[in-house]
Amino acid sequence: MPTTKPRMGKTSLKSTRATTTTFMDTRQLGTSNLHITPIGFGAWAIGGGGWEFAWGTQDDRDSIAAIREALDTGINWIDTAAVYGLGHSEEVVARALEGIRDRPYVFTKCSMVWNDHHKISHSLKADSIRRECEASLRRLRVDAIDLYQIHWPDPDEEIEEGWAAMAALQKEGKVRNIGVSNFNVAQMKRAQAIAPITSLQPRYSLVHREIEEEILSFVTQEGIGVIAYSPMASGLLTGAMTPERIAAMPADDWRKGHRDFSEPQLSRNLELVRLLRAIGNQHGRSPGEVAVAWVLRDPTVTGAIVGARRPEQVRGLSAAAGFRLRPRELAQIETFVARATA
Q: Which of 42, 193, 290, 299 has its C-alpha lying 20 to 30 A from 228's C-alpha?
């Protein structure tokens, strides 16, 4: 597949309650016909509480308001997954899009399944992926999914079977594009031998830069789009996180025991936030906006997934789509990271 550069354009979105239309640049996702805004709405946290990777309890009314606010700011895609809230996130997305005149793209993911006891496991068996797809179509109330992604390459030995099933769903018209998430280069090569990959969804932020070693150059060469998740490191880089807030997190917030939110990493991460705040203050921007702008600085990154649980969080971050860091500010950040990891 030849190397391609994202094609730029403009998108406008207006919900039935909006009185104005907001315009935002768009980029072509890989070689697909999807042209997405630099920021997409991430629907992980709106799955609510009570499951293994929850962010604590969530009010569905806040979730719906946040999604509609995102559309009003010009965001034209939503990223969710079947496992988020064990189906609940997809259902909330469907409710939020009721009555929306210009519907956004809806992306979702498969491969993480659960049983009647809410125990999560992984499967890339063809029949499992097909069942997941049908269930997601019902929950999302759509005839076809704009981008269907394998959530994790697990089990590794089932990648070929799983990707062949994804390609079959695309041929049948149940999904329009197919992508992968959390795949390494070797795994993407195995998938590419069966069918083209529209996009990769990797973790990417100032806290986690592993994809810079070889993945970014590979996807550039192959013309694969990139939609980065956790650009603010799951809330760490927003500027709102403190040791006290972490200690007060509910027991079912997966971040509570994660190493990024624990010492010694926590102090280093919060020191990084202080630098991002200092840079942001020069532009009237928040640390979170600076963190998202840093991820979007790389032209290989087509878009960044920004999660929000309330409308005001969307308003505080959507402007990062058009924010550009100065060369000296990027150098400041690199100097800090080099010193902190030495």
A: 193
